[in-house]
Design brief:
three-stranded mixed beta sheet, 198 residues, alpha/beta
């Protein structure tokens, strides 16, 4: 009788531990910002300085674009940010009111115009970063966009395309190849269908 009671207690404890930690991936209170810096001709701009400024606190972070023009700011506090990009020989790009939402990746793709750095090109509007008219959490990427995307952005794995969608975050440590966590679920619970790219 005592063995049965001990076994039941042990089984209950195992269940609590197994299901109690299932939502741990969804408990993030920060977001991320990424993008590709290009010139007005559509060529990527490596070595540009991208700066994000939290409009509420004034805190800033800087990053240099990679050899393929990409940048990433993980772990940003939720709020509104000003994004600027600059490089000698180009006009400075500024975009205000960029919203960073919890557990989502926002994207800003600055376009630098030729000119001196004292000239500022400020973007006052643009496409919505988050769709507010639909509760859809799925999406698709056109074939042309996939084919035009540098291989370095994907990390050699098409599953990383999932990171372009809202509500998808990469695993801690930046592990590529699993497509990230969708809606707070564990990466192994994802189901991706890749079709159409040649």
């Amino acid at each position: 009788m005592r063995t049965l009671k001990f076994g039941s207690t042990l089984s209950l404890l195992a269940l609590v531990l197994a299901f109690g930690s299932a939502g741990a991936f969804g408990q993030r209170l920060d977001g991320a910002l990424r993008g590709v810096v290009k010139d007005s001709g559509g060529a990527v701009v490596p070595g540009a300085t991208v700066t994000v400024t939290n409009e509420a606190t004034g805190s800033t972070r800087d990053s240099l674009t990679s050899s393929v023009g990409t940048y990433l700011f993980p772990n940003l506090l939720v709020g509104k940010y000003t994004v600027s990009a600059e490089l000698t020989g180009f006009k400075k790009y500024v975009r205000r009111d960029v919203r960073i939402l919890a557990n989502q990746v926002s994207e800003v793709n600055p376009v630098l115009e030729l000119g001196n750095i004292e000239t500022v090109v400020e973007v006052l509007g643009g496409a919505e970063l988050v769709t507010t008219t639909s509760s859809q959490v799925g999406g698709s990427i056109p074939e042309r966009a996939v084919l035009d995307m540098p291989n370095a952005v994907l990390g050699g794995d098409p599953l990383n395309l999932a990171l372009a969608f809202p509500n998808v975050t990469s695993q801690s440590g930046g592990v590529l190849g699993e497509g990230g966590s969708v809606g707070g679920n564990r990466p192994r619970n994802n189901n991706f269908t890749i079709d159409g790219a040649r």
